[in-house]
Design brief:
It contains 12 helices and 17 strands. The chain has 354 residues and is of the alpha+beta class. Strands 3, 4, 5, 6, 7, 8, 9 and 17 form an 8-stranded mixed beta sheet that branches. The protein has a 7-stranded mixed beta sheet with strand order 11-12-13-14-15-10-16, sandwiched between helices. A hairpin with a 2-residue loop joins strand 1 (4-6) and strand 2. The chain is globular and about 65 Å long.
Length: 354
């Protein structure tokens, strides 16, 4: 075995290993302590992928002298509709390689590429917030994320929202909307599934949201908005360090009239600020979409995401997104489905979207 010599000291090259249940605590300690790691690097996602969707997880970590020096969580998603891919991380907006040094990073990338070849996937996809593999083909213009610091003072946070959007929030407040924390996912699924059907998007199974809550415990909760006891909107959020990430949400047919979605995110911001969270991560949006405009209207500035690819069997970059013209007819048809049908059929498709 060769060693890398630096000055008078010698450093053994890192070994790359597959995550086991016994390593979860060590893995998560590394993730919490690394500035570039995200909630989506947590070891629990390996359980989510397998328990909620039946996808195989390959969570790789680099180790030197018994100390983890890098992680690269991967999930294998294979379907007849959308192809065969190794992704870091499926169903997550961020992912990719995080390491303490170049040797660990390179060792993880080399093992991931080798695994992609072994599995004969179409491509390996790494979802980075900044470029990590400049020689790889990438999509850096399709998706952006919206992240912004928040204050512990409600008035300061309200004033930071641009005037027109602030007026929408105030209308929700004046409508007498109320926020309630939920123990389960029933109301979340009701509001979320209605919203995504209206967008022409297949819904995830209710089981997925239950697994998220079971796996991540106190770092995952549900806030629902009601008016006179009637459900208006709901959101499932993740918590990581001092950040909150509202991730899955939606409003019912009544939300528009009472500015329910506007109030939902304000109520979440107000609650988490009081708990000491100081960064609001509005998550990913496609450039030019309604969600992109909504988040900009809150005063958040878009930051490009860099999805980088190692092609194996594919000859070109994948284009699996609703803006692709070939999905236009499917989306239009899906919007017209009865809600019960979309909830029944959606999970069969959504599990393969990654």
């Amino acid at each position: 075995m060769t060693t890398i010599v630096t000055g008078m000291a010698t450093t053994a090259p890192p070994g790359v290993h597959l995550l086991t249940p016994a390593d979860h605590d060590r893995w998560d300690a590394f993730v919490i302590g690394h500035a570039e790691a995200t909630f989506f690097h947590r070891a629990g996602w390996s359980l989510v992928l397998e328990q909620a969707f039946g996808h195989r997880a390959y969570f790789l970590y680099a180790e030197r002298d018994g100390v983890i020096t890098g992680v690269l969580p991967l999930g294998h998603v294979k379907s007849l509709l959308f192809g065969n891919a190794l992704i870091s991380v499926p169903f997550c907006v961020y992912g990719g390689v995080v390491a303490l040094d170049a040797d660990s990073k390179n060792a993880l990338l080399a093992r991931a590429c080798a695994l992609a070849e072994e599995l004969q996937v179409d491509y390996l996809e790494l979802r980075h917030r900044r470029r990590q593999c400049p020689d790889w083909p990438s999509k850096s213009e399709l998706y952006v994320t919206f992240r912004k610091a928040i204050s512990g003072d409600d008035e300061a946070n309200l004033k930071a929202i641009p005037r027109k959007q602030r007026a929408m929030v105030r209308k929700g407040i004046e409508a007498g909307l109320q926020g309630e924390m939920d123990d389960g996912v029933e109301r979340l699924f009701e509001a979320y599934s209605e919203s995504v059907r209206n967008l022409g998007t297949p819904v995830f199974p209710k089981r997925y949201f239950t697994v998220l809550r079971e796996v991540f415990g106190k770092d995952c909760d549900v806030l629902s908005i009601t008016k006179d006891g009637q459900l208006i909107a709901s959101v499932l959020s993740f918590y990581f360090r001092d950040e909150v990430l509202p991730y899955y949400g939606g409003g019912t047919a009544h939300a528009r009239d009472v500015k329910g979605n506007d109030f939902l995110y304000w109520e979440l911001m107000r609650r988490v600020a009081a708990r000491g969270y100081r960064l609001f991560d509005y998550g990913r949006s496609k450039v030019g979409t309604g969600s992109y405009s909504f988040k900009k209207n809150w005063g958040f500035e878009p930051e490009p995401l860099h999805y980088e690819f190692h092609l194996v069997r594919a000859k070109s970059l994948p284009d699996i997104n609703p803006l692709n013209p070939k999905y236009r007819l499917f989306i239009a048809t899906w919007k017209r489905l009865p809600l019960w049908a979309s909830r029944l059929l959606g999970p069969l498709i959504a599990r393969s979207l990654g």
